[in-house]
Amino acid sequence: MRVHIRQATMEDMEGILEIVNHEILHTTVLYHYEKLSLEQQKKWFKRKTEDGMPVLVAELSSKVVGYGTFGIFRPWDAYRFSVEHSIYVHKDYRHRGMGKLLMSRLIDIAKQNGYHTMIAGVDGSSDESLKFHKKFGFEEVGTFKEIGHKFDKWLDLRFLQLFLE
């Protein structure tokens, strides 16, 4: 079976929501406490689309098994050349190359659109995500200690950076 990477549509929001809510409820990769509603996910997608930001899905046998996106790093003009990305893969489809395909496409899109750098915010306990990003040339540039709190523990947040030029 072949994975297809494509621009998401509103019809993909249920599949993305399933991935997001699993991460919210069971991991520290998203620092949310409460699962999101389909309405919230659709508003998120609409905002991304209006902002001209990509939302990609990895599709396998007509099922959304992963997604990736990016947005401007911070909401001030001087940051307009810096994007922060997110990539999430369905728990049942990890370690099959979906994340790699999504990351490669997001990097290509960012370069084509003239962005200068891509930022990753990675949960401090996720060595797997750290290794994943380093394979693409991201360098660790700093860590915020105990910046988040979830599941009765303090969480560190690592930042990594990739120059796109």
From TrEMBL:
GO terms for molecular function: acyltransferase activity, transferring groups other than amino-acyl groups. Residues 3-158 form the N-acetyltransferase domain. Pfam families: Acetyltransf_4 (PF13420). InterPro entries: Acyl_CoA_acyltransferase (IPR016181), GNAT_dom (IPR000182). Keywords: Acyltransferase, Transferase. The keyword Lipid metabolism does not apply. This is N-acetyltransferase family protein.
